[in-house]
Amino acid sequence: MGLAIETIGLVKRYGSLTAVNRLNLKVEKNTIHGFLGPNGAGKTTTIKVLVGLLRPDEGTVKLLGQEVHGDMPDVRLRVGYMPELPKFPKHLRGWELLDIYGRMYGMTKQERMEQIPKLLDMVGLKEREKDFVGKYSKGMQQRLGIAQALLNEPELVILDEPSLGLDPVGMVEVRELIKEVAKEGRTVFLSSHLLFEVEQICSHVTIIHKGESLISDTLHNVSSKLSGPATVQVELAKSSDAVVEAVRQLPFVSNITQDGNMLTIELKTRDNVRAQISQEITKAGGVIVSMSLKGQTLEEVFMQFITKPQGGKAE
Amino acid sequence: MSSKESSSWKTRFWAVVRYELLWNIRKKKFLGMVIVAFILATLSLSLPVLLSNMIGQPLKQNPDYVISTGAGIGGLGMFLFAVVVVMNSISGEFESGTIVPLLTKPVSRTMVFLGKLLAAFITLLSVYAVLFIYMAVGGTIVYGPQNNLHLLPLTLLGTTLSTFVWVAIVLAIGNMSKSSLIAALGTFGIFIALTISSPIISMFTDQAWVLNYVPGSGMTGYINGTTPQTPYTPGIAVATGTDNIATNLINYVLYPSSNVTFFKIGTLRGQTPQMVELYTEPLSTVLARSMLVALGFIILFLSISWYTFKRAQILE
């Protein structure tokens, strides 16, 4: 699988401040890649370099296999971008804005006529398409931002904090929208401070802190690498030493504690081994009332990373 | 997508022009300026009629009214139109943040710059054209049949070229400062400084030639009929600055071989100031120089604007 985004040794400085420091970023095609980091980590700066709003001081940037240097509008024909809290010209109507942007993408009239109503409908702005953008709320401008990022049916969609400014319903809708976009075979690269959002929709994650990439991998591997094994909690109908002993003998169990009818089983693995545990408990005569697998959330992983000394770089 | 084939430079460029034109014609300050210009044009046409009725004297026919008045815009009008059309053009995009979605579309910065420039040109040309037509019709109604109306397109082009000197200055200051306010105030400062200094330098020093090379009204001379002994009965006044290209074009077409004489105020004898002749030069020289100076300023300031815009980093 090729790379949609690749940066090699990317450096961006603002005076004496190094906002992005030798960043090596690889985003595989056809993935939803989350770009995480605390405020000031360098997420937006990196994205601005990717879309050509900022010039890198060092390093190379490739989008869809094409090296980007200077003002290269042709690369942007294949990329859709939604900035953080997008601002659009207030003097244009919603559909007018998309129509003009569509022309900038070189779309034919027929293509614009097909695509624009579809997108306005998708982001819930169909009823307000004839209103001036100046009359749109922040949330509506955010939705318009998503629509214009998808206008050219891009191969790569870059979203900077797509849920910012949206109400809870809007946030859910945006997440569903992103999933739909990814299903169509597009690559989505999104920065977000909402970890649960990333956890729900991303297949891959890069964590950036102080301009440096701390870890970049699949979401599953990121969680495993840092958080270690998961735990399984089992509620039994009746406590039994035989059950405890039987479970303790399983090769992937590192420790087991008992609190009344409740067993907490620490695992050496993050694989889903609930079926084997269940089988062993039943074999030892136990009756399971409930069972749940508990791993660290991305939020816990994230906090663990960025609070580690020296940025907590993972292997 | 099949649109890739049609995504030519031309299609994308016209999208930028359209984007900018819609902004220009929907700006409140632009609409306000157009309304004020039409009110002033109406007043200049109707006041003489009202006054002549009040004093009971019929208004004299003047077949040269329209060609000598043009759109009646003048230096201040051109300056104001330049400011209201382009003060927000690029700096406003930076201030509002709308530059971000614009520059991430598949349009180069040069294309955006040229598109905005063409939109400003079209906007100014259209407004001036409508004003000229209004004045031509009004002038014909008030002052009778008019001569040389076929020269109006020349006036239109000259006025637009003159205005573009101010457009270039506003854009350059705006692009460097990224502030619409500084663009407007900075240009206003230049305009006022030159407007105040021009007549002083022109009338009291031997060095008035310097005004030939700065934006604005420039140095004033007279075509024919003016002598140092008859300073207050001059011939046709000719201003050499970049604001007067339209008038000079018309004068040149009407009096192609005429010369322009420049004076300064010499020693005062009693109550009558004595005019001292400085030099005389052909009108063609005055016209060619004012056009070259205008083009020079336009190219210089637009180059500064373009380079600044091309190199700008979008931090916000």
Write up this protein.
The complex is a heterodimer of chains A (315) and B (316). Chain A is α/β, with parallel strands linked by helices. Chain A contains 11 helices and 14 strands. Chain A has helices at 43-50, 73-76, 94-104, 109-122, 138-150, 168-183, 195-201, 219-227, 241-248, 274-283, 298-307, and strands spanning 3-14, 17-28, 32-36, 58-63, 66-67, 79-82, 156-160, 187-191, 204-209, 212-218, 231-236, 253-259, 262-267, 288-294. Chain A has a 6-stranded mixed sheet, with helices on both faces. A 4-stranded antiparallel sheet of chain A has the order 2-1-4-5, covered by helices on one side. In chain A, strand 4 and strand 5 form a beta hairpin. In chain A, helix 3 (94-104) packs across helix 4, helix 4 crosses helix 5 and helix 9 (241-248) crosses helix 10 (274-283). Chain B is 65% helix and 9% strand. Chain B has a 4-stranded antiparallel sheet with strand order 2-1-3-4. In chain B, strand 3 and strand 4 form a beta hairpin. In chain B, helix 2 (9-26) packs across helix 8 and helix 8 (109-143) runs antiparallel to helix 9 (152-177). The radius of gyration of chain B is 22 Å and the shape is globular. The two termini of chain B are 32 Å apart. At the A-B interface, helix 2 and helix 3 of A face helix 1, helix 2, helix 7 and helix 8 of B.
